[in-house]
Amino acid sequence: MNPVAWTRILGALALLAVGLDHLEQAVVDHYSAIPTIGTLFMLNFAAAAAVAGGLFAPVQRLPGRVGEVAVPALCLAGIGVAAGSLAGLLVSESSGLFGFMENGYRAAIVVSIALESVTIVLLGAHLAVARRAGKARRGAAAATSPYNAYAPHAPR
Q1: pLDDT at position 49, please?
Q2: DSSP reduced 3-state for 62
Q3: Stretches in the chain below the pLDDT threshold 50
Q4: CA-CA distance, 66 to 73, in Å (whole number)?
Q5: What DSSP designation does 105 have?
Q6: What is the pTM of this model?
Q7: Are 92 and 101 in contact (CB under 8 A)?
Q8: pLDDT at 137 (0 to 100)
Q9: Residues sharing a CB contact under 8 Å with residue 110, sequence separation 6 or more, in sequence order
């Protein structure tokens, strides 16, 4: 597999892990009982699972422009889910969020920070690597195109 595929798959796995971490916190650690916070944890799981599912699916095969923008849009959505989770955690650690304040960096919080950071890095790397590969592909296709001989700027 090439780096483009690896960064997409690993980014999707990391994003799914972010969602599962929030589901575990909501159910096992009873965050679901905390008003607003419990709902946000469940929504985080749902969003992470949906976006990760889209990243695992061959959405680039969708017809037309939708297929071209599906993967970058899903990557940006995944980065948004992870960055939003990280921002919410940092706010809840420092000043409180919706009346809830996290206390200390217990293991679950460290895991959450690590997963969210890895997700942001991997999906961001995927966007960069895929863009560079796309430019190289377009450049190679243009250079080998039989129609270049007919272009006004091509030497004859």
Answers
A1: 97
A2: coil
A3: 141-156
A4: 10
A5: -
A6: 0.80
A7: yes
A8: 59
A9: none
